[in-house]
Amino acid sequence: MASPRFLVSLDAYITPPGCLDSGRRDGSVRLVVFKRARTGSTWLRKELQSVPGVQLEFEPFTDGRPAQHCPPAFFTAALTMATHRRLRCVAARDRERSCYWRRHCNASLLPPWRGRERPLVAGIVLNPAYAPGADWDAIARGATIGGPPLRTVWLCRTNLIKMAMSDLRRLAKRRLRAATASGPPLDSPAASSSLDSSSLLNGTVAPAALLAKAAEALSRQTVLHGPWASLGAGGRPSGMVLLYEDLQRQRLLALRSVLTYLGVASEPGPARELERQAA
User: Fold this and answer.
1) Nearest to 150 by CA among 90, 84, 88
2) What are the tens digits of pLDDT across the range 150-169?
3) CA distance 177 to 106
4) Residue 150 is inside which H or E element, if any?
5) What is the rounded CA–CA span in Å between residue 258 and residue 113?
6) pTM
7) In the predicted model, is pLDDT for residue 235 greater than 60?
8) Alpha helix locations (H) across the chain?
9) Is 23 helix (H, G, I), strand (E, B) or coil?
10) Cβ contact 172:194 at 8 Å
C-alpha cells in the first residue's frame, strides 16, 4: 500500500494546488474530520458551523462503550453511508428515538437528514476510537463511489504535555462534578474548598503523572493510523492536516485554509462570513 501524502502548511491552501478543484460539483462537499480527544475539535466545529451552508455531525457513536453494543460490521456500514450523506440518530440527542443506533445496530435503519436546501458541506467529526473494528479499507472504497469527492481533515496536537494536562484537568473536573452531584453547588464555599484542594484544577500536577498521561496520549495516536493509511492511499485524494496550535495562533487563517481546501471559500456565504470576521 502506497504511503499517503498530506498537505500540512496552512499557506498551501491560500492558493490551492491545481488538483484541488471545487469539491461541490452536483452535491455537497463530503467531509470527515478525524480527531483525538483534547485536540480542539469542539472549537473547530464551532468555527465551521459559523459558516453558512456547513453542517457537521459532532462525534457520532460516542454513547457509552460502543464495542459492547454493536459489531464492527455496523460501524463499517454506517461510516460508509456517512461519507455520502448526513445521518440522523447517531448522536446522543436522539437517544430516545426508535431509530437510535444502539437500539438496533443496523446501518440500513439510520435515516438521512432531510433539509429544504442542500448544504455546501456535510460531514462528521469523528474519533475513530468510537468505531471499533471498522474496516477502513472498505470505507475508503465505498467513499470513492459516486457523488462529490470525499475530503478529510486530520486534527492533531503536537504539544503532548499540554494535551496531557488538559485531559487531566478534564478528568479532575468530571470527578469533582460527580463528587458534588448530591452535595453543595459548585459555587458554594464547601465546593470551592474542594476545588482549591485539587492540584490539577489549580494547574499543577506531579511530573510523573503528567509524563505518564503524555505517554498514554502518544500511544493513543495510533487510533488514527487505520483511517489514515486507508483513506490516503491507492491514488485517493490526500487530506489536510490541521494542528491545534495553528488554530490557536491563527484562527481566521486556519478557517480560511480549511474552506479553501474544501473548495467553498469563494462561495457567497463562506466568502461573506470570512470578510465579516476579517473586519
Assistant:
1) 84
2) 888 989 888 888 888 888 87
3) 35
4) strand 150-156
5) 24
6) 0.79
7) no
8) 41-49, 72-82, 101-104, 136-143, 160-179, 189-197, 207-220, 225-231, 244-249, 251-262, 268-278
9) coil
10) no
Q: Which helix (H) or strand (E) holds 57?
A: strand 54-58
Residue 197 CB burial class (10 angstroms; 0-12, 13-18, ≥19): exposed
Structural domain boundaries of the chain?
A: 26-62+71-86+102-157+222-227+235-278
Q: Is the dihedral of CA 276, 270, 267, 254 positive or negative?
A: positive
Distance (Å, whole) CA 162 – CA 252: 22
- C-alpha distance from residue 41 to each of 36, 45, 57, 227 (Å): 8, 6, 12, 17
Q: Helix or strand or coil: residue 241?
A: strand
Rounded Cα distance between 272 and 51, Å, is 9
Per the CB < 8 A criterion, the answer to whether 9 and 250 are in contact is no
Q: Residue 193 and residue 181: Cα distance in Å, rounded?
A: 16
Q: Which backbone phi and psi does 152 adopt, to 5 degrees? A: -125, 135
Architecture of domain 26-62+71-86+102-157+222-227+235-278: 3-Layer(aba) Sandwich (3.40)
Q: How far apart are the first and last CA of the chain?
A: 46
Q: Is 195 a residue whose pLDDT tops 70? A: no
If we measure between CA atoms, which residue out of 45, 95, 37 comes closest to residue 69?
Answer: 95
pLDDT tens-digit profile of 104-157?
999 999 998 887 778 899 889 999 988 888 998 888 888 777 766 788 898 988
Q: Do 149 and 237 form a contact (C-beta atoms < 8 A)?
A: yes
User: Rounded to 5 degrees, what are φ and ψ at 20?
Assistant: -95, 80
Among candidates 8, 4, 36, 73, which has minimal Cα distance to 230?
4
The b-or-e profile of 144-161 (16+ CB within 10 A means b, else e) is eeebbbbbbbbbbbeebe
* C-alpha cell, 60: 457520532
